[in-house]
Each structure stands twice: as C-alpha cells, then as structure tokens.
C-alpha cells in the first residue's frame, strides 16, 4: 500500500471491505504517467473484473470529497484527474508539463537542421513545405487569370520562388491574425446573448 499525499489521505474513505476502494482508484491515478483518465482506463488499470458502474461510483465519491475533478467533452466523454491544489486550473503538474511542451519546430535549431539531428523538427518542416507547395500550385493556377505579372519577379528562379513563398506565408499570417482578432471581438458579444440565441 503506497503512501498518499496527506491532503488526499485525510479526505478518502478508509473502508477496505469494498472490491474497489477509493484509495485503490487514487493510487492507480497517481502511479500512472498520465494526467487524465476515462472511467474505462481506470477500470483496466485498477481492477478489470469490476464493473464500469462501480468505477464511476468511486469516482463520483472522490469528486464529492474534492480529491479528483473531471471535464466533460463532446460525445459524452468524461476525463478524470487528481485535483491538485497547487494548480489554479485545477490541472495536475503533469498536465502543466504537457501544455508547456514545445513543438518540434520550436526545438529545431540551425545547427540541428544543418546536421540533421532533430528528425521530428525536420519532418514537421518538410510537411509544412509540402503544404505550402500545394498552396503555390493553386496560386499558379489562379494567378494568371487574376494577375498579369507574378507576385515576385527575378532573373534567378530560386529567388523568385523564395520571394513568392515569403509573400504567401506573410499573407497567410495576416489572414490568421485578422480572423483571430474578429473571433476574439465576437466572443464577449456572444457571452451576453441568451442561451437560446447563442446556440443558433
């Protein structure tokens, strides 16, 4: 039997007559290297022979005692996690670490790129290049109809392609910022509307 944090130890029920105890559920969640669990995942890790209803009953008891918290997502998916007091979300320290994790591109340095030492970052960069190539192909089809001259002109084909790519990336960035600003400005307005109108 592992030692639980004093805050949790004081709140859980110390009844060992049940097939699945509150302590067993909490220990299962603390010992696993993940911040969130569904009821089925907890059942599989703790006691596969108990019913899912029994697991949900223990989880509800622990939630009422403020030991765990839950979030419900679309399609009736409910995820449970330890309610850590040091987090204001509430979110576990593991969850904080997961959110703070940098994307492969953020960890890709010039040195790593030149020496091909960051496979995940290089793959992400290559996939982004493929997607931008498709955008450029689409622009190449539409541009002759709309524009008489290319976006960027140069006697060097590489410079011309690079300049066109830069213009496209800059335009995409501006469009994303504009859409985000519009959505941000609309949110306060929507929050003031009645639920019957907001859901439409």
Q: What distance separates the N and C termini?
A: 52 Å
Q: Strand portion, in percent? A: 5-15%
Classify the helix fraction into a percent range.
55-70%
Q: Overall mean pLDDT score?
A: 77
Second-tier CATH architecture of the largest domain? Orthogonal Bundle
Notes on the structure:
By secondary structure, this protein is mainly alpha-helical. It is built from nine helices and two strands, in the order ααααββααααα. Strands 1-2 form a two-stranded antiparallel sheet. Helix 3 crosses helix 4. The C terminus is likely disordered.
Fold blueprint:
Layout lengths: L5 H4 L12 H10 L7 H8 L5 H13 L3 E6 L3 E6 L10 H8 L9 H6 L3 H28 L10 H36 L2 H4 L2
Antiparallel strand pairs: 1-2
Helix pairs in contact: 3-4
Keywords:
200 residues; Arc Repressor Mutant, subunit A; two-stranded antiparallel ribbon; 58% helix
Question: Can you summarize this structure?
Answer:
This protein is mainly α and 200 residues long.
């Amino acid at each position: 039997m592992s030692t639980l944090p004093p805050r949790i130890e004081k709140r859980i029920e110390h009844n060992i007559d049940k097939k699945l105890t509150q302590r067993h559920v909490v220990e299962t969640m603390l010992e696993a290297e993940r911040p969130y669990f569904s009821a089925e995942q907890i059942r599989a890790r703790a006691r596969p022979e108990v019913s899912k209803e029994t697991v949900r009953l223990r989880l509800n008891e622990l939630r009422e005692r403020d030991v765990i918290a839950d979030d419900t997502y679309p399609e009736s998916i409910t995820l449970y996690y330890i309610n850590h007091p040091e987090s204001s979300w509430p979110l576990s320290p593991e969850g904080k670490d997961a959110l703070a994790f940098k994307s492969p591109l953020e960890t890709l340095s010039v040195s790593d790129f030149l020496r091909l030492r960051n496979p995940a970052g290089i793959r992400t960069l290559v996939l982004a290049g493929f997607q931008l190539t498709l955008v450029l192909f689409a622009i190449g089809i539409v541009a002759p109809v709309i524009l008489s001259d290319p976006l960027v002109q140069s006697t060097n084909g590489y410079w011309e392609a690079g300049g066109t790519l830069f213009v496209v990336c800059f335009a995409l960035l501006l469009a994303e910022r504009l859409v985000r600003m519009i959505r941000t400005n609309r949110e306060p307005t929507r929050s003031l509307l009645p639920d019957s109108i907001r859901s439409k």
